[in-house]
Amino acid sequence: MTQSTSTDDLTGFVRPGQGAGLVDVVRRRYLLNLLVRKEVQVRYRGSVLGWLWSYVKPVTQFLVFFVALGVFLQLNGSIPNYPVYLFSGLIMVNLFSEAFSNGTRSLVDNAALIKKIYLPRELFPVSSTLVALVNFLPQVLVLGVVCIFVGWSPSIVQILGVLLGLVIIIVLAMGLSLLFGSVNVSFRDAQNFVELIVLVATWASPVLYQTALVAQVLPEWLMVIYQLNPLTAAVELLHAGFWLPTTNGAGQSPDGLLMYGLFALLISLAILAFGQFVFRKLERRFAQDL
């Protein structure tokens, strides 16, 4: 029996924990599709409003910030089409926040499955990011319809800028989810730290205010760092694609936005690579620590 075991053909088998990372997620797209469909279907199961809850949070945020900043602080008068400016930034930050938060908790939430069978564990943070993207699409559709009514006429470059901003957010959220999600398996403080990051994200990017106001306060070198923030670049790219074409020339994008957008994409890719590296290092302990 010992001799037959040593001569067994193990071609095609992979030792658990020795997969190819995100490459395995692409190879097992059918599993990814199943996870995304499952999360989307059960998200609002048993809820009276169902999918309408996807709009409740961003609409509530919009109303609160619009009244507080647009009306009380009179930004509605100083920034043309401030409602479009505000909502376009909010939905981008909400996409990042949902993808990042849910991706960080995804491994712990699927502990029972991870302990029973082996499958690429990257599937869980990636699927959470894609579910957040699914919830984002109806919101951006509403934004597009509103923009059409106020004279939206974007150029091809501006539309491509919106796609670039979306890619930046998806890559950034996925990389941070891999990083913090893997750490969260052993140290649950990670998800509390993520909540702080998400809280700061809305105010650390030009969602509620314009970048020009920041430039008046920060020194030039610190302003460069601010604009290299991937979230800042992504929000400004969405502003340039949706808000700017509705202002009839009254609005203005920051100088060098495309350059900062490309740098932001490179930074996001670097974070994704680092997140995957840490994930692979900690992956062996997932089943044990869960």
Automatic annotation (TrEMBL):
Main subcellular location of this protein, as a coarse class: membrane
GO cellular component assignments: ATP-binding cassette (ABC) transporter complex
GO molecular function: ABC-type transporter activity
Location in the cell: Cell inner membrane; Cell membrane
Occurrences of domain ABC transmembrane type-2 (ranges): 49-282
Entry-linked PROSITE patterns: ABC_TM2
Pfam families: ABC2_membrane (PF01061)
GO biological process: lipopolysaccharide transport; response to antibiotic
Residue ranges of the TM segments: 48-72, 123-152, 158-181, 193-218, 257-279
Domain of life per record: Bacteria
Bilayer disposition of the protein: Multi-pass membrane protein
Keyword annotations from UniProtKB, A to Z: Antibiotic resistance, Cell inner membrane, Cell membrane, Membrane, Transmembrane, Transmembrane helix, Transport
Keyword hit for Transport: yes
Family of the protein in this entry: Belongs to the ABC-2 integral membrane protein family.
Name this polypeptide is given: Transport permease protein
Lineage, opening ranks: Bacteria, Bacillati, Actinomycetota, Actinomycetes, Micrococcales
